[in-house]
Specification:
Blueprint: E1 2-3, E2 8-11, E3 17-23, H1 27-41, E4 47-49, H2 57-66, E5 69-76, H3 88-99, E6 112-119, H4 129-140, E7 144-145, E8 150-153, H5 164-189, E9 193-194, E10 200-201, H6 207-243, H7 252-255, H8 258-269, E11 278-280, H9 312-328, H10 338-345, E12 349-352, H11 364-373, E13 377-382, H12 387-392, E14 398-402, H13 408-415, H14 422-434, E15 439-446, H15 455-465, E16 469-474, H16 494-506, E17 511-517, E18 522-527, E19 531-532, E20 535-536, E21 539-540, H17 542-554, E22 567-568
Parallel strand pairs: 3-5, 5-6, 6-7, 6-8, 11-12, 12-13, 13-14, 14-15, 15-16
Antiparallel strand pairs: 1-2, 2-3, 2-4, 9-10, 16-18, 17-18, 19-20, 21-22
Helix pairs in contact: 1-5, 3-4, 9-11, 14-15
Length: 602
């Protein structure tokens, strides 16, 4: 028995040949094929995994019929309903063969097969289209389905079993039961000798016997289809209930990885640098599936709010409690400075980021006003897919828009947005940002080999939104993800980020490089209106901001204010070119002793 990447062949002593084709781009689905291979081995059937890229269906697929192969196809649907790169040729060939008279309608007659498709239901109109099509094309060539098509859904909200892994597990259990029955049933009829390379030859049978075999497989396939359909009907209500049970606020303890969260807070209270903020989000949902998302797409996605909504008061209360609870864990820890500990308990800043699209939350304005009523500053990050919501947003301390790419194609490749009109939405969001009077920031995340070559296009986008600041940061590698091919090779060195920023700043007549934070691999380009008498004023006067917000509220919005009204002078150690490279000299810095980094790419 052998297992393929998009093809798993299982060769048994009973001359049953079992093949699993696997046409996926990411490691998770390869793991599915290998997992199924191991399970099949427990039935006493050897298995082997082979990439479908190396498989020629024109020369080999018809042989599976004579070899009495049982073929399983694990196929994923990628961008715009297309197959993954390694399966493009196979799917193209299968589609053409299914309608080509030269092959005929019985080209794969009697070939037992099963299909498991992998996709994401948030992409309406393209969900599992590859799995559906492969199933259809095989059927059109008279292959015999031994089990109903399975579907795995990456959308944790609509996934029938809660995750794509659980969907596959449920299907796999049924499939193995079905395979066991076939192994037992085929031992009598599929007799013959197997060659060492795994292709089995069986004695010729007369037409009547072969027809009986095919009929038996078709009948069992119909039974399986009826059983599966019944299961789906029974679970319908559960799915509906589950889709509404996703709350919009996780425990803050689950928003960041506990190790990183604890490290950030320990650095601050121990005086080792870093700005301490309460990190929270009123919305776990997002309209993008960015390749560098640190959540690895375990959060729900969607283009509109359709989940249970917690009130703003509850979200803020619980977020503050969780934040203070984590700070208290450092009481008595060696190295913790008492004054920093007390400072950390008092929540003064809130970052509405980390995960999801906060602007999707229906009560986002109420939540921001609630923050300001507690004199907590607000830093909101949006993914530039909701232009009207940006226009309706009340003043925030600082409003960020993620500009992860500068062209339509690269944005689609990096952010993988759900909206079909994502590019017009993106551009309109930048225009909406330009209409805001408070501090606005373009956040550019540089991904090596993905978006660092689009200098001119970036400058055009900056002219469109005229942000106060442009924050350029190298992407942070957050570990292996089944939903992304990002690796450490895509993380630029700080020197590379500096070079990019210098080139970009040279193309912007009203902007200059103002600040640098080497430890965060980040630089800040600022509008020259923040350079007063030759000195940069890029920092924030938080108390002044809260006073201005209060006055605006009391005047019913009549007394507005701008970013220049609450700017503060930039300390010398934060300026670009300073020896400190953005590290506060009042803190204690710890550095690793590493070898000189090679940024040549060799």
């Amino acid at each position: 028995m052998s297992v393929w990447h998009n093809r798993l062949y299982l060769y048994s002593a009973a001359a049953l040949v079992f093949g699993i084709w696997f046409s996926v781009k990411v490691a998770l689905k390869k793991g599915f094929a290998e997992e199924l291979s191991e399970e099949v081995k427990t039935l006493g059937v050897p298995a082997k995994v082979i990439d479908i890229r190396d498989y020629d269906p024109d020369d080999q697929l018809a042989d599976e019929c004579t070899n009495k192969s049982v073929c399983v196809f694990l196929v994923a649907t990628y961008t715009d309903g297309q197959p993954t790169e390694n399966a493009e040729w196979f799917c193209k060939w299968l589609e053409e063969a299914s309608t080509d008279f030269r092959y005929g309608k019985t080209y794969l007659k009697g070939l037992p097969y099963a299909v498991f498709g992998l996709g994401n239901s948030v992409y309406v109109g393209h969900y599992n289209t590859v799995g559906t099509n492969v199933d259809k094309w095989l059927w059109m060539l008279s292959a015999v389905r031994i089990m109903t098509r399975g579907e795995g859904d990456c959308d944790v909200v609509k996934s029938r079993h809660g995750s794509i892994q659980a969907d596959f597990l449920a299907w796999k259990v049924k499939f193995l039961i079905r395979l066991q029955a076939l192994v037992k049933g085929e031992k009598k009829s599929y007799s013959g000798n197997c060659k060492t390379k795994g292709s089995c030859k069986n004695p010729k049978k007369d037409g009547q016997e072969e027809e009986e075999e095919t009929t038996a497989l078709q009948n069992s396939s119909e039974d399986e289809l009826v059983e599966s359909s019944s299961d789906e009907e029974e679970s319908g209500l559960q799915d509906e209930e589950k889709s509404g049970s996703v709350v919009d606020m996780e425990d803050l303890g689950n928003i960041m990885s506990s190790a990183k969260r604890a490290k950030v807070r320990l650095f601050h209270v121990a005086g080792e640098g870093g700005l301490l903020q309460a990190h929270t989000t009123p919305s776990l949902a997002c309209a993008n599936k960015c390749v560098f998302c640190w959540r690895h797409h375990t959060n729900p996605v969607g283009t509109e709010w359709r989940w249970k909504m917690d009130p703003a008061e509850k979200i803020l209360h619980e977020a503050m409690e969780k934040h203070q609870g984590m700070i208290r864990q450092f009481r008595g820890v060696p190295g913790v400075q008492p004054e920093r500990y007390e400072e950390g308990l008092a929540v003064k800043h809130c970052a509405l980021s980390l995960v999801g699209e906060p602007i999707m939350y229906p009560e986002i304005n109420a939540f921001i006003c609630l923050l300001h009523s507690h004199r907590i500053s607000s830093f909101l990050v949006t993914n530039a897919q909701f232009p009207q919501e940006i226009r309706n947003l009340v003043p925030v301390t600082q409003l960020y828009v993620s500009v992860d790419a500068s062209t339509r194609d690269s944005l689609k490749k990096i952010d993988r947005p759900l909206f079909k009109d994502f590019w017009p939405r993106f551009l309109d969001s930048l225009r909406a940002l330009g209409e805001k009077r408070q501090r606005t920031v373009y956040r550019l995340t540089l991904v090596k080999a993905w978006n660092v070559e689009e200098m001119l296009s970036y400058s055009e986008l900056i002219a469109l939104g005229q942000p106060d600041f442009i924050e350029v940061k190298g992407v942070t590698y957050c570990g292996e993800s089944a939903a992304s091919t990002l690796t450490m090779a895509n993380v630029p060195w700080h020197q590379e980020v500096v070079a990019f920023v210098q080139q970009l700043a040279d193309m912007l007549p009203q902007y200059e490089i103002a600040c640098e934070h080497e430890h965060s691999n980040c630089l800040l380009i600022a509008h020259t209106k923040f350079k007063v008498d030759g000195e940069w004023w890029t920092w924030i006067d938080y108390e002044r901001f809260q006073d201005l917000v209060q006055v605006q509220g009391e005047s019913g919005g009549q007394r507005g204010f701008s970013a220049l009204d609450y700017m503060a002078k930039t300390p010398s150690w934060a300026l670009f070119g300073a020896n400190e490279q953005g590290f506060d000299p009042t803190d204690t810095r710890f550095q690793r002793r590493n070898k000189t980094k090679d940024i040549s790419g060799c």
